[in-house]
Amino acid sequence: MSSNDSTSKTLIVAFSLSIVCAVFVSAATVMLKPIQEVNKSLDKKRNILAAAGMLEEGVSIEEQFAKVTSRVVDLRTGTFADDFDAKKYDQRKAAKDPAASEKLTAEQDLAKISRREHYAVIYLVENDAGDIDKIILPIRGYGLWSTLHGFIALESDANTVAGLGFYEHGETPGLGGEVDNPRWKAVWPGKQVYRDGDVTLGLIKGTVDPAAGNAPWQIDGLAGATLTGRGVTNLVHFWLGENGFEPFLNKLQAGEA
Prior knowledge:
By secondary structure, this protein is α+β, with helices and mostly antiparallel strands.
């Protein structure tokens, strides 16, 4: 057998194996996609429940999430947009679409997100009497190295924090990554967002003095992560401010949403 024949057979075998492997990989991707989507949905629901302080280990996520109602809000008007399907609306995709979002000015863009989508999916929890018990809002903003994505939960007064959590970010472990620390997240519940109509809640340098007059609006700083902490403060101020959910929260409280 000539060396040319040997080389040709080797190439044919290698090419055939590549085709077979590609077919298997493609088939596996298609078959696993539904499972990945289910897991992605469950993880999102888990994070929503955790932010609201409602997550119970050992209990089905779907069972717990049955208490939560998803609604779409028009951020331009502060009213519900019930013609949108909350389960199908892709908020991240909309934020990148010029037709479904708006460019923020430098003065408006506290969270450094560049564009704000017209619509957002929010989550409501009602008590046995049918009254709103918790309001869970999606938030995002730039820290030091990355955009932090998370949820902030408010009590029925739309002012008292019920909890906060980030489910995606690329901040430095041990520094900005301390936004994941359960002890730090535990200081948020009970804090107040607004003071005299303005968003005042934010991180300070060091630890909050419980006896200080500003304590209800202050959060312990993240040691060694000044820029991440500033980013968290800025994103809270943006999303709970006039260009975020403040108009909706005001109308919700007034029964006009």
